[in-house]
Amino acid sequence: MLHRKMLDGVKWDDFQQLSLEEKAPYFVQSSGRPYHCLIAQQFDREALDGLCDLATRIRRIGKSKVGMDFLSSLLMHKRAMLYFTQPSTRTFLSFYSACQILGIRPAEVRDPSISSEMKGETKDDTMRTFSSFFDLIIMRTPLQGLAERTAWLLSNTERPVPIINAGSGKDQHPTQALLDIYTLARSFEKRGGIDGKTVLFCGDLARGRTVRSLSGLLQQYRGVKLIFAAPECLQIGEDILAQLKENGVEYEITEDFKGHIHEADAVYMTRLQDEWDKKPGESSRGYNPEDYYFAGEDLDRLRNTAVIMHPLPRRAEISTDCDNDSRAVYWRQMRNGMWIRSALIATIFGRDTEITNYYTLNIK
Ligand code: NCD
Question: Which CA distances in Å does 332 have to 13, 26, 180?
Answer without folding.
Answer: 41, 33, 10
